[in-house]
Each structure stands twice: as C-alpha cells, then as structure tokens.
Design goal:
The complex is a heterodimer. By secondary structure, chain A is α/β, with parallel strands linked by helices. In chain A, 44% of the residues lie in helices and 20% in strands. The termini of chain A are far apart. Chain B is 24% helix and 4% strand. The chains are: A alpha/beta, B mainly alpha.
Chain lengths: 292, 331
Amino acid sequence: MGAEDVSHLKWLMTWLAGIGVLAAVGVWAAFAETLQLDTALVVSVDVSNSVNEERYKLQMEGIAKALEDPTVVQAITNGPNGGIMFAMVTWADRPTMVLPWTKISSKEDAQAVAAKVRMLPLQGGEFTCMTRMLRQANDKIVPQIPARVLRTVIDVSGDGPDNCNADEPIDAVRDELVANGVTINGLPIVLGEDEIAASPAPAGATRAAADDGKGVGLEDWYRTHVKGGNGSFILPANGYGDFARAIRQKFVIEISGRSLPRTFAARSFDDGAIGVLQFVEPKGGVAALKVD
Amino acid sequence: MGCFVQMRRVADLQRGTHVVALAKTEVWTFGTLQSCAMRVLSPSCAGIAAKLTLGASHLFSERKKRLGSIIVVALGVLCISSPVPLQAQGKGADFTARDVTVRLFESDSPVDFSGKNLSNLDLAGLDFKSAVLAKANLYGADLSGAHLTGCNLSGANLDRAVMTRTDFSGANLSGAQILAPSVFRDATFQLSEAPNFRGANLRGARIAARLDGADFRGADLSEVVMGPTIRGAEAGLAPASKSYSVDFSGAKLDGVKIKDVQMTFSRFVGASLVGAELINLDLSQADFSGADLTNADLSGSILDGANLSGVTGFDTVKGLQSVKLLDKARR
C-alpha cells in the first residue's frame, strides 16, 4: 500500500467517522424530541345496563379522587421521567374514548384531569362488550400514545363478564395486546347479593353466567380472560362502594411500576384502610408494601 | 373464516398422498395461501410470504413437489395456527386496523393508501391527516367519526361503509362510489349523525344513500348521479330513496342527476343547478332561494311549499308541466 493509498484511506475514515457522529447526533436529537414519560395508563370503565347513574358517579368520583390522592400524585411525579399519559374509555355496546391522551406530570395536571373526569356524562348502553373495548385499545388507543413510555397499562373495571357475542374470542384480543407490550390489569366489581338484586336483569344474568356450574366467579373470569402481560394483576372491589379504594390502590401500583408477586391477597384488605397494601409472596410469606 | 376453512383444506390435502390433487388446484391454492399468509404476517413480512408462495408455485411447475410441499405446508400451518383472527381484521384487507392507525399516527406527511384494500376495517374515529385514498376499497369500512378532511378519495369505493358523523369536508371524492352506506345508528335517523361533505369535490360521484341532514354546503356535485336507479346499485331500496333536510347551499350541482328521492326540507340556497336533472323528487318545503336553475329539469317533482324566491333561469326549467303542486310554491 502506497502513501497515496494510506492518505486516501485516512480521508475516507475521517469522512465515515464524521457521518457516524452526525447520524448519532440526529438519532439523539430525534429521541430527545420525543416526549419521555413513565406509564401510559388507559382506564376503561364499564357503563353497561347494570351501571346506573349512582354507580357511574361512584366510579367517576373514585377515579377523580384517586387522581387527586397525594400518594398517587407522588407516584406519578417520582417516576424516572416524572409523568404519565392518561386516557379514559367507557364501554358498553361500543367503547367510547371519553378522555383522550393527556399528560400528567404535576399535582395541578392531576387535579385538572380529575375535574374533567367528574364532568364526564354517562354514555351508557345495554351490553358488556369488553372484547370490542380491548380491540379498540389495541387498534386505536395504544398505537396513538403521544409519548415514549416505559410501560403501557390498561385498567379494566366492570361488574360482569363479556356478554356481547363478539366475533373474536376475548383471549385472542388480550393476547394480541400482551404481544404488543401492554399490561392488562383487572378490577372486577364483585357485587353483593343486595347489589345484584338491585341491578337490572342482564347484570344478574351475566353474573350468574359467570358462576354457572363451573364455580368460576367474576374475579376468576377476569383472571382467565382479561389479565395479561408483565406484572399484571387482579384487584377486585367488593361492590361499587369499594371501587374508590380499589382504583386508588391500583393506580399506585400501576404508576409506580412495582412488580407484584404472583399471588395478590386482595381479599385481605380491610375496607377503608388505605395505608398499607398487603400481598402474599410467591413462596407463601406475607409482605407489605407501604403506599402512604 | 372462509379463508381459514380453505387453508384447512390445503393442509388436509397436504397430509397423506394428495399432493397431486393440490397441483390440480394450483391457482386457487396459491392465491388463497398467499392472501392468507399476507394477512396474518405483518406488512413488512407480507412480501416474503408472497415470494415464498411464488417460489413454491415455481417448484411445483418444475416437478420439485416435495420442497414445494414443505413450503406450502409451513405457510399453511402458519396461517391456521395464527392467533390473529382473520375475520376481525377485515376480510381480504391489505392492512389491519392497527396497521392503518400506526401508519397514520407516525407519519408527518399524508399517507398513501391509494388502490389499497381497506374493506371491512374498523377505522372509526381515526384522523386520516389528508391521506391519499384514491381508488382505495373502503367497502364496509367503519368510518364513523373519522376525519377524512382534505383526503384524496377520488375513485374510491365507499359502498356499505359506515359514515356516522364522518367528516369528508374538503375531501376529493370525485368519481367515488357511495352505495348503500350506513349513516344512522338506528331508525330514528338523527340528523346530527349525518356525514359532513362541506366543500368537498364529489364531481362525477355515484351516490345511493339515505343522507338526511348531510352537509354539502359549498361542495362540487357536478355530474353526480344520485338516487336508487344507478346501474349496479340496489335499485328501489327504500333507504336509498329518502334524504330529508340535506343542505346543498352554495353547492355546485351543474349537470347533477337525482331521481326518485324524497328530499323534503332540503336547502339549495344560492346553489348552481345549471342543467341539473331533478326527476321525480319530493322537494316539498325545499329552499331554492337565490339558486340558479337554468335549463334544469324538474319533471315529475313535487314543489309543495318550496321557496323559489330569487331563483334565476326559472323560465328555462324543463318539465314544469309535470311538476306537482307548483302553485303551492313560494316565488
């Protein structure tokens, strides 16, 4: 190799290095331009026939209070990127995105979203078409998160199983969401006998269908067909009166990104005791997660 | 589901000694296989699926049936075992609804879907961001609440699409076909659910639809054929023969052909209807104030209570002798 060749090679290497640096700067700039947040949280709320105005208000108030809760706000602002994206869907016969993706990175943001949640009118329907809601989440809501996030979580709450005769199995849609990196957590609202009696006919019927001859309750139906993805869990509410407690605890866990042990002893909660979450460790021991 | 069953048949044929039978139905098989594989794979892998099926086809023609069979079976198993339900993604569509959403969301410039098959997809609520959908097949697609503002839909097929509250304002729908779409959620025909075509270019489009309350203000509907008697449309269907309270104010309807439609309470304020054929229409209480009806043909139409004040070219209107209740019109 002659001196001329070496010089040519050096010239070439210099150019390549320059191009590499420029490309790296470009990628970094593009990355930095994209909004970086911790969690993208979709809260999906059942507004089917069994949800009357009073139960709807209990749910909306529960979500609003949870957003205003200091522990939840702390969980939001203490994350690595100091904020989350929040969206809300109500679903009955069809899902409706009632609150588009909104950034929450401060107490004031959280309070503003809470105020919007309180003002959302009930857009109810007849059936519990959960599969359609998950399909919409997979096809429309999750792909349009306007930020780069560490995790995407869908909160599904409702008082009955899917009763909509969807044209695809709910498990398939759930698996598709999981394959797309989404975690789906369930908040089944387990109605007491008095609440079932007070519900319109379909709610009682679907609840009975969930239990029908298989010894499978709503909580287990959620565990089998809804729950999925990394660190997913089921946290039931004991009736609508318990919804606020459950959704608040759920938010803290989801937003803080803590990974929960496999078995979650939700039943051991003492109603109203918000200070400490207890759960069973995989090996059987009991641990406590202090959230207040 | 039909595709699924067909693929099962392909797999069944492959089991045992039925390769010869497969070869006899080569064209059908490879067509089915390719479309199935392309639908269960992501768009980026669809090209690979197409090449594999083509390669397998060549191997068959070159008598290398064993290797060809292996490729066919592999693709068939992939299709059959796919957890993705084919029907839910829109039968025969080139994309899934998620693909469309992602492309629209991630692109800064108008996405090109021209000539693509988007039939039966749930595209409700999507913002198409001035996408190019020229000659796209949107048959049966759910476009309710979708924003198609400024989109190029020229020559597109929108038959049986769901158009509840769809925004087509400023879109180019020239030469498009809109036959028997679903506009209303139920039989109460809420006018607020009608699509918006304000300022759209519908020149030469073919429409057979119930569009009560639709907004065509300022739109170009020149040479549009509207009504239930279009060749190929489901002629005579009642839903296609009514369109109450449609607003054509300021629209250009020169040479439009509308026949056998009840259009009571519709508004044509300031519209240009030069040479328009408005045959056998119920235009009771319609408002034509300030409209240009030069050389228009109103044969057989009803003008009970219609407002004809300030109409220009009324003396050139044809078929006035067969117009019903003209004496009840306000002039």
